Amino acid sequence: MSSSSSPAVLLNTGVQMPLLGLGTYKLVGPEDVYQAVDAALAAGYRSFDSAAVYRNEADLGRVLKELLPKHGLTREDVFITSKLGPKDQGEGAMEGALRSLAQLDLGYIDLYLIHWPGTQGCVVTDQRNPGNRAESWAALEKLHAQGKLKAIGVSNYTPAHMRELMQSCKIPPAVLQVEFHPKFCQTELRKVCEEYGVCFQAYSSLGKGDLVTNPVVLEVAKNCERTPAQVLLRWAVQQGVPVLPKSSNPDRIKDNARLFDFTLSDTDMDRLSALDCGHKFCRDASQVV
Ligand code: NAP
What we know:
With about 290 residues, this protein is of the alpha/beta class.
C-alpha cells in the first residue's frame, strides 16, 4: 500500500500501517459515514478502523468505493481494519470473519482483529474462553493464508492472553489494539509487545473526549499553540504508537490529523506521562480467563 501521504509503522508482515487512522465507533448510517470518510480522506487519513459490532462495515465499504476515485485513490492506498465480534468467538469465527469480508466488500481486509478475549454469553471466568480464543485464531490464520486477511491481530488482550497466544499460534499477531492515553500508559503490555514484535496500537487516545479538558493537557496545548486533541495524539505517535481518533465532525477530523508538523519537548512528554494512574474509560478485560 502507498503510505506516501501518511507516516506509517512497519508490521511484522512486512506491510506498512499508517500511524493515523479514523476511529469509527458510533459512526453509523450512510450519510454520517460518507461525511466523516470524505473529510478524513481530504485531510490525509489513509486508515479506517471498523468492527462487526460497530454495524458500519457495509456503509464504510460502500462509501469508500464511492469516495476513493473522488480523491484520486485506489483500494491499495487505504488500510482497512475490522474485528471479529465476541458473539462469533470460537466456532463462529470463520463465518464471522467471512461476514465482515462480505459486508466491507473491498476484496480483502488489511487487518482483522479478535475484538475481545472473552466470548459473548460466557462469564469472564468461563473455562471455554481460552479454547474459543484458540479456535478464532486458527480461523483467522486460515483466512490470512488465503490472502483474505492481509494481517491478523488481537484487541483488549492482557499480557497473559498475549503469552497464551504466542505459545500456541502458527502465525504471530501483527497488532494488539488497546486503550492507551496519558492516564493509562500500559507499561507492561507495551513491553510484552516489544518482546514479541507485535505493533502496539492505541484506541481512545482522547479518553473518549474527556481528556481534552484535562488541565495538564490544556497547559501543554497552550504552550505549544496546538489543540488539546493534537497534544494527546502527538504524545502517542511520538512514541511510535499508532492512533485512531474518532470524530464525526469534519473540522475536528481535519484538526486531529495535524500531528506530524510539530514535536512535544521531553518535558511536555514527561508531564503527560506522569498523568498515568491506571484510569480506563473503556471495558476492562483483565478478569477474562
Ligand atoms: P476517542 O477517539 O478517544 O474520542 C472520541 C470522542 O472525542 C468523540 O466523542 C468525539 O466527538 C470527541 N472528539 C474527537 N475529536 C475531538 C477534538 N478535536 N476535540 C474535542 N473532542 C473531540 O474515543 P473512541 O471512539 O473510544 O476511540 C477511538 C476509536 O478507537 C473508536 O472509534 C474505535 O474505532 C476504536 N476503539 C476500539 C476499541 C476496541 O475494543 N478495540 C474500543 C474503543 C475504541 P465528535 O465525534 O463529536 O467529534
